[in-house]
């Protein structure tokens, strides 16, 4: 036998006990005999087989393995197996998050065994190490989180590799020549991972779609959608089905509904909105009370359970709002036409109608299907003008904020309705705040785009009285619908929007940071936490640290989600809450409409398991859409900064790490990083306790919340990364 082969065989035999245990551990539900173990080890000589038989007997004697059939062994059942979710941390190592365990399980790169970020895996836990870190090995991939990835293709003569954009993907994907699908070297592609042979370093895949050259606008936007598995067009059969729907208003259908066409009705939406899924009606009753109607497009009239439209809407679960486009949940024939409550058109609606007194208390309520007629459409700016000028006898909308770009006069009855409903909304909001609701009015970054989708400018969208008026009446409808079903006995299955109390550790971390800026929280109980959080959010308004603290405060909160198990909504201070008011853009609202109508017709309780699964899917898709929206904003910010490379910007230090300083520019909220290695004036070290980096020679300090000046060093559209050059705490004058 050649010497090197004999050496390899000796190594296998020396570690035989551990190797046998590893084989049995990898598939601990299957029994192996000595021949199968020998075959896995590629040992076929009698001497090696005898050693395997001996080792099996020794391990059995020690209780490490069990003989469950003649000559067939399995690992002794252990409490050390868990199922959890992979979170890749970097350098190909990761953690397994297990719901029942307090600490995450660390897994080194060699023990990940082809598990990828987000996968559900089975993990075997070793003994706890001296450092206190629980370590383990992935023994089985239960479910792949995703099999499609976006990346850049490198084409060789006989094959290709795709380098995946996602930094948590630690491997590239090998593409055989016959599966390149016409992709050219350097193009961005969507690739499917098809197989990962046991001895291969990289998984094998095929190119599904060529997205275009990196850095091009449409390529990058389509890449963002593809990365999260979000579509950007409807299948042809869905479009055909939608276009065949009869969207006419029929007398026979009107007779089945409450006719509210004569009630004064109007919509208030963003100036550029194309779908109007909610309208308000207002009437003064003979007893001096007000009848307020919240009318929602009756999407479920057209999207019936199980049809092609419903299947597609469920899969999408939400519309996706990117910086330069909307990817709608429903085709345009419905979202912008039949289900859009456009002015001077009759529409089928689902309504929540309230009799309310001057204190904004609900005296009576009614829920059901209606037919409505919108008398007018307003942009938020127009309604805000009416609210800000309450004493005007004639309400004229100036041309500079008018939807039509022309000055016009608002009908007196509509102006009075807006003013009265604004007064009621303010009472509803005050009541909510007193009950412990938290007011997150985070500034939204918006872009002024040219006709090619390039950013020409940045502006901030803030919520004013007109926005808050609409918000309060939508909240009222959502809360009252949830209460109406939630309080019924016997209990009925329903879709709730819930928000758990914040995690104590996250609140403690927030407290630790805000005290740097001179703020504090009172976390004695639920109500005092909410009250002091509101005070904090109010105190930081207009300050340099506002966006940083707003962001950190939101991150300290639990995530809102859809479920059939009601626990209330902490952030809104509601015991019952749902989503009823936006069925054009959210699938849970469609489910709520169907269930509400079913129960209004005295139907039996729906199947909880079925709706809980749909809730989980809706929450997952909402999360993906949010990530895509965030990525598109980041992309547009970097694109904007590419054209401003020679400018000095004032920013706030928003994060400090051992590798760099994160800075958010005050004028446009773009965030980038100054790498510590790029700070030329000194050698800086990270001080975790001080949230700072400190120069070892000069003692110069860059601390969280400091104002600094920076310049763009590199704006990478493909990696969506912005690097800054530090100019210091003050600009040097020439």
Automatic annotation (TrEMBL):
Cellular component per GO, a single term: cytosol
EC number: 3.1.13.1
Subcellular location: Cytoplasm
CDD domains: S1_RNase_R
The reaction(s) this protein catalyses: Exonucleolytic cleavage in the 3'- to 5'-direction to yield nucleoside 5'-phosphates
Cited PROSITE patterns: RIBONUCLEASE_II, S1
Family: Belongs to the RNR ribonuclease family. RNase R subfamily.
Function: 3'-5' exoribonuclease that releases 5'-nucleoside monophosphates and is involved in maturation of structured RNAs.
Protein name: Ribonuclease R
Gene for this chain: rnr
